[in-house]
Q: What sequence folds into this?
């Protein structure tokens, strides 16, 4: 929703300012320039991107339009999930959660957090980490290093759509110049026409440059930055899980490990200590 509002503001500001100077909107309507610039931009993107990147970009843009972001409730859910898992391990032993990590979607604990279950990266992080702890004698510092590497790799993967759109954004002003040059070439073929015809033709050519620059700095660039924020937010969410798991494997009590995780939640969505404590008490009733 905010992305759409931003696009409306950009167009309103640019076109509104143009109209304030008594500009003619008909001059800006140049279908041929649109075909040249955006057709070349899309074609260049397809040449540079494997299918998985194209799908990732489409998925990322849809997520921008949906406006989905991790909320305080999402972080509360992950803290309560970790608390339930840690408490069960502390009471019944590590082996007691074997069935839960082998099949999280059939687990009584995981099924209490349906939204978390839809995040397959987060589910895999929890399940694979606990499975590693069960089947190996990995030290806490080695586990932390392992998880850091996994989160870095995941973050790099999430950054691919942002970098791809950034490349498209960088190409748009250049493609706008290409459209303008083609327009000038057409104008030169009309050199014997009256000044009114030449003026209209040159104006149409300059619209190509205008469109390329506007789409770069008004739309494609901001979309790339938004996808970067989404990737960083995902890393923050996964980091909360990592900190909780490492603290517990390092010997912290369940509630202390959960507190370690709570402390690294971004401030604008961080539940308070009292809120988490009361929620955990509610689980025990």
A:
């Amino acid at each position: 929703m905010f992305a759409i509002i931003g696009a409306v503001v950009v167009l309103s500001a640019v076109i509104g300012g143009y109209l304030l100077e008594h500009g003619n909107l008909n001059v800006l309507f140049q279908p041929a320039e649109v075909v040249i610039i955006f057709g070349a931009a899309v074609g260049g993107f397809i040449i540079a991107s494997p299918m998985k990147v194209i799908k990732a970009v489409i998925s990322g843009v849809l997520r921008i339009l949906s406006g989905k972001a991790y909320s305080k409730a999402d972080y509360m859910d992950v803290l309560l999930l970790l608390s339930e898992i840690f408490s069960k391990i502390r009471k019944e032993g590590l082996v007691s959660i074997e069935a839960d990590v082998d099949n999280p979607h059939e687990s009584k604990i995981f099924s209490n957090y349906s939204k978390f279950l839809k995040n397959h990266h987060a589910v895999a992080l929890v399940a694979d980490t606990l499975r590693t702890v069960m089947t190996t004698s990995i030290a806490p510092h080695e586990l932390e290093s392992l998880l850091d590497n996994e989160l870095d790799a995941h973050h790099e993967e999430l950054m691919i759509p942002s970098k791809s759109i950034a490349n498209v954004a960088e190409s748009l002003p250049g493609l706008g110049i290409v459209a303008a040059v083609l327009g000038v070439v057409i104008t030169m073929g009309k050199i014997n026409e009256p000044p009114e015809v030449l003026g209209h033709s040159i104006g149409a050519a300059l619209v190509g440059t205008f469109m390329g620059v506007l789409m770069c700095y008004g739309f494609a660039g901001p979309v790339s930055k938004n996808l970067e924020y989404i990737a960083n937010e995902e890393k923050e969410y996964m980091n909360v899980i990592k900190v909780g798991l490492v603290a517990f494997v390092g010997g912290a009590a369940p509630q202390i490990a959960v507190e370690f995780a709570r402390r690294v939640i971004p401030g604008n969505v961080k539940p308070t200590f009292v809120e988490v404590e009361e929620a955990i008490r509610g689980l025990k009733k």
